[in-house]
Design goal:
The structure holds two protein chains of two kinds. Chain A is mainly β. Helix content of chain A is 13%, strand content 35%. In chain A, the strands form two sheets. Chain A has a four-stranded antiparallel sheet, with no helix packed on it. In chain A, strands 3-4-6 form a three-stranded antiparallel sheet, with no helix packed on it. The longest helix of chain A is centred in the N-terminal third of the chain and has 14 residues, at 15-28. Classes of the chains: A mainly beta, B mainly beta. At the A-B interface, helix 1, strand 1, strand 2 and strand 5 of A face strand 2, strand 3, strand 4 and strand 6 of B.
Chain lengths: 145, 134
């Protein structure tokens, strides 16, 4: 910022404004990256007639999650609560988020609610859904005339 | 003019070098809660996907190092179509302010959260000092 566009004036009237602008840019540079994340983060794996959805749900017990399926939309709801044994503790660092969450995921096809399998493994929820029998692609034979 | 500011985000790759890491696996900083009670320090670190036998905790003097390796989530016959989180390893180093009784450290891993109880050493505990009558 040493180079001024106003050499004849001897001083740059906008130098403070420009400094403020770069300061603001720096302040807000990380905002979108951290707040736009949906909870829980999910990964989706696609098979021939089934889909596997995994979600990072560390610190959430099995009883605190409910799943519902409607047509091709899977909804995950639940809560994460701090499980403190003692009261009157002195917090030194709080980075983990607590509260309720709800997330709806649209699947690539309608799934069969009766064959859904869900497992919890080390804080990762894994849900396997099968495509509805009626929706599966059918092979059509061409009859010889 | 521009000042480099180091921000620690939840998913910043860690940069400690002395760990034999697998190729192309990111190393994450696990988000952690730390609280202090009358006689211990409790650390809760989020490490989803890490099995209990893949955790490595060391305490050297007052430097506590937590490492975890998450199992690779490969699904045979399936194709990854959507990705919001990556498989990776976890690593974080804390410097403790108290002396810790090493023999009574307890560590448990439940639902992807590491629960570490570090009891304060007798010498570090607050002690009431009686005034001697003169």
């Amino acid at each position: 910022m040493a180079l001024s566009e106003f050499p004849r004036l001897g001083f740059d009237p906008f130098i403070e404004l420009r400094r403020m602008q770069s300061e603001m840019n720096r302040l807000y540079s990380g905002v979108g990256a951290t707040t736009a994340r949906d909870f829980p983060p999910i990964n989706i794996w696609l098979g021939e007639n089934s889909v596997v959805l995994t979600a990072e749900l560390s610190g959430v017990s099995r009883d605190d999650v409910t799943m519902s399926l409607q047509e091709d939309v899977l909804t995950l709801e639940g809560k994460r609560e701090p499980k403190l044994k003692q009261e009157n503790v002195n917090w030194q660092r709080r980075e983990r988020a607590y509260g309720t969450f709800s997330r709806a995921v649209q699947l690539p096809f309608r799934a069969d609610a009766d064959t859904v399998q869900a497992r919890f493994n080390n804080g990762i929820l894994e849900i396997e859904l099968q495509r509805l029998e009626a929706d599966r692609p059918k092979k059509i034979e061409i009859r010889a005339v | 003019m521009a000042q480099e500011v180091r921000t620690v985000e939840q998913r910043t790759p860690s940069t400690t070098e002395d760990w034999d890491r697998r190729a192309n696996r990111p190393v994450f900083v696990p988000p952690s809660d730390i609280y202090e009670t009358k006689d211990s320090i409790v650390v809760l670190a989020e490490m989803p996907g890490v099995a209990p036998d893949a955790v490595d905790i060391t305490l050297e003097r007052r430097v506590l190092t937590i490492r975890g390796r998450s199992a690779a989530s490969e699904h045979a016959g399936y194709q990854r179509v959507y990705n919001e989180y990556a498989d990776g390893d976890y690593e974080r180093v804390f410097t403790l302010s108290e002396n810790i009784d090493r023999d009574r450290i307890e560590a448990t891993l439940k639902e992807g959260v590491l629960h570490l109880v570090l009891p304060k050493a007798e010498t570090a505990k607050a002690r009431k000092i009686e005034l001697k009558a003169s």
